[in-house]
Amino acid sequence: MRRLLCSIDFILLLITALGLIGGLMLTASGRGVIAHAVWTVGAAPVLLALSISIFQALRRREAGIDILALLAIGFALALGEFLTASVIALMLASGRALEHYAHERARREMTALLAHAPHYANRFEGGEWLRVELDAVVPGDRLLVRSGEFVPVDGTLAGHAQLDESALTGESVLQSRPPGESVPSGVVNAGAPFEMVAAAAASDSTFAGIVRMVQSAQQGRSPAARLADRYALLFIPVALLLAGASWLVTGNVERALAVLVVATPCPLILAVPVAVVSGMSRCAKRGVLVKSGGALERLAQAGILFFDKTGTLTGGHARLVAVVTDPGTTADSVLRFAASLAQASGHVISQGVTTAARERKLSLAVPARVVEQPGAGLTGEIDGQVVAIGSFDYVSTVATPAPWSKAFLQRVASEGASAVFVGVDGVMAGAIQMADQIRLETPRALRLLRQEGIRRLIMLTGDRRDVAETIGAMLGVTEVCAEQTPADKLAAIHAARAQGTVIMVGDGINDAPALAAADVGIAMGARGAAASSEAADIVLLVDRLDRLVEALRVARRTRRIAMQSVVTGMVLSIAAMVVAALGYLQPLAGAMVQELIDVGVIANALRALRIRATATTGSLARDDADRLKAGHVELGPVIEQIRKLADELPRLPRTTIASALESVNASLSRELVPHEQRDDAQVYPDLARLLGGEDPMAAMSGTHREIFRLARLLGQMTAEIPSEGPDADSIQEFQRLLYGLDAIVRLHCTQEDELFHALDEGA
Fold it and tell me: For residue range 186-228, what is the model confidence (pLDDT) as tens digits?
């Protein structure tokens, strides 16, 4: 508000208001001549401001839309209609002040972000903590963030942290981050003081990049405003022609003046930019930074969407898929050995293995005598045993290859995954399959994008064609472009632009050229200093693909509101012009009518601030969502046990099959079935209330019943196995049951995880 009070627009409003009121008081006291002079003085500053704005617009080769207002005031003064001139001037000054206020209100979510810029850091020097300027921080510095302070630069946590990330994400839920996790600058320490290690200088950190983009966004001019100018190119000649015709036909110059008064195009000048900035503000509140109104306008018109695969459709991190073991060795044992040794490596696959073990609550040992061969693997001692992890070629030099190794390697290669082999005391004990898994929100986001009118969804990836087409089929994209180089991506986008407005979504440095070439480039994640974020028009500050759906909804509804404001304003103004040309609306009354039109269209434009970007469903508390997801992680060993037995069943001695099946049945009765029963009885009713509708969880409950049926059937068949063991047909039937149970449980857990993620209020 203080910026408004200090603005030129407010000063103009104050002068014209005082001039109008002063002139009316003088007229009432019988001093009409002085009143005319006061009204003229009050209107003159607005006349000067209009002249300057028209001159500047013409220099930029833009439509001088203010020319009608200039003619109306000048014409009124020339005809001695001093009161009318004063009212028109007040109308324009109040409209400009209202626009200023609307802009400030609409920008507050974006400008509030700038207030969170860190100014200093607490660095450990010479055995003590010293406050230093932010520019003095370099990567590797040991920093302390006290309670309530902003994280000064991007870094890695040395301890647990409770963070308020609302400035970047728009979510008010506090986030608990473990040691070793990266933390972006600009978030607030909402808990106890913690230490961190700087990973970037201040100028290269997340917040600095975001601030640069926000400043760029605030300076951008929307093509919607230029669209209003194009309407003005038609509107101005029509108004001048109608004013001139009414004068020539009737000989009454006041009719021409009345036409010019109601033709003052404030709806075009004010409403469109207010709507666009309001839409940008709404996006910012949901963690989507739109750098310019132009990007929002193009996003609203897009129908073709390109995705980079890694880090966009997928999470960009290696996750555990499966653990294969030697007979007699458990999956948890193999994972524990691998994760204990992996703690000594900084490789991304090693970090994924360690994370998977911690998710399963395995107790890791401290590795000793670790030797790492970069890019191949590492060897060390775990609990007195020699353990090796890494590629097959590396581990097979210190451990005897297992019979299942070749088949496992073929499976991993066909699925585009990574393999970590594990050797223990010279024996290849098992192998771990790791892969960059599809984001939980990706399938839902793609479905919603199709509902919003995106007609082509094209996946770009450097993966082999067979792997890429498998993922594309899983997601239901319309086209797959595999084995793509950055140059190939660029060519594909250039070709698609001839068919419509193109969006490109990516996250890596190699995506920057494609992001810059697309009509709308969208960068994933909050790394504002990355090349992809700098090249993009829009940055998703929250690392979730479904925020793109929200941005698209806001963009399309904002454009619709802007067009409503333009069309409504023009129709009302033209109707008033016709009435004035027929002599039924005097200049002074026309000014009042035009003011009402202005207020109406601006109020309509501000509706963009209230656009709902998400469906009106409830949400899970963050702790509840995490607890439900953790329950599926705990089921991992049971699911692996089912798959492992299904694979091994034909090779097992007939007399041992019954005991192996009994072990699986015990796990199902002890863990899987009770878990699904609890979900059906306790979790699903709460989810149904959040989702709304009569029975939204019916299909998921149906899957529970199928799991119960298969588990019960497996138990009954196991009890009927003869003492000498099952025959070949029975073994085949057991295999069919186990594979079916494995598939339906995995699919069901994936569906539930997607649902929990969609309802997670803190995600």
Answer: 788 888 899 999 988 887 777 776 666 555 544 544 454 555 5
Query: Tokens in use for 167?
Result: 């400035």
Where does residue 565 rank: exposed (0-12), middle (13-18), buried (19+ CB within 10 A)? buried
Can you tell me the distance from the alpha carbon of 396 to that of 328, in angstroms, rounded to the nearest whole number? 20
Distance from C-alpha of 574 to C-alpha of 161, rounded to nearest angstrom: 61
Backbone angles phi, psi at 128, to 5 degrees: -145, 165
CA distance to 85, 330, 536, 647, per residue, from 652 (Å): 99, 16, 57, 10
Sign of the Cα torsion 30, 33, 36, 41 reads negative
Query: What is the model's pLDDT at position 220?
Result: 46
Q: What's the pLDDT tens digit per position in 234-258? A: 777 887 788 888 888 888 888 888 8
> What are the strands of the beta sheet with 142-145, ordered from one edge?
128-133, 120-125, 142-145, 194-198, 155-157, 182-183
Of the segments 210-219, 265-274, 321-330, which one has the largest average pLDDT value? 321-330
- Of the CA atoms within 13 Å of residue 138, those in its CB half-sphere come to 2
Are the CB atoms for 224 and 272 separated by under 8 Å?
yes
Considering only 172-186, 234-248, 653-667, which range has the smallest mean pLDDT? Answer: 172-186
Tokens of 125: 């020097």
Distances (CA, A) of 487 to 111, 493, 503, 513, 630: 37, 10, 17, 8, 41
Q: Which residues contact 438 (CB under 8 A, 6 or more apart)?
A: 313, 314, 315, 471, 474, 475
Angle between helices 82-114 and 587-605 (to 10 degrees): 10
Mean pLDDT score, 549-577? 87
In tens, the pLDDT along 33-67 reads: 888 888 888 888 888 887 887 777 777 666 556 67
Query: Distance from first CA to last CA of the chain, Å, rounded?
Result: 34
Contacts 24+ apart (CB under 8 A), 346-349: 348/317, 348/318, 349/318, 349/418, 349/420, 349/434
Tell me the two tokens of residue 44: 């003159």
Residue type, 215: Q
Tell me the C-alpha distance between 65 and 58, whole Å: 10
* CA 266 from centroid of its chain's CA atoms: 35
In this prediction, residue 1 has a pLDDT band, given cuts at 50, 70 and 90, of very low
Locate 522 and state its tokens. Answer: 């969208």
Block residue for tokens 């910012």: 284
Query: CA distances (Å), 66 to each of 51, 55, 356, 383, in order?
Result: 8, 10, 64, 82
Question: What distances in angstroms separate CA 230 from CA 57, 277, 296, 595, one per listed residue?
Answer: 13, 19, 18, 23
Whether the CB-CB separation of 720 and 677 falls below 8 Å is answered with: no
pLDDT of residue 102: 55
In terms of Cβ atoms closer than 10 Å to its own Cβ (0-12, 13-18, 19+), residue 372 is middle
- Give catalytic residues, as residue numbers: 308
What global pTM score does this model have?
A: 0.67
- The amino acid present at 208, given as its one-letter code, is A
CA distance 69 to 88: 8
Banded model confidence at residue 105, pLDDT cuts 50, 70, 90: low
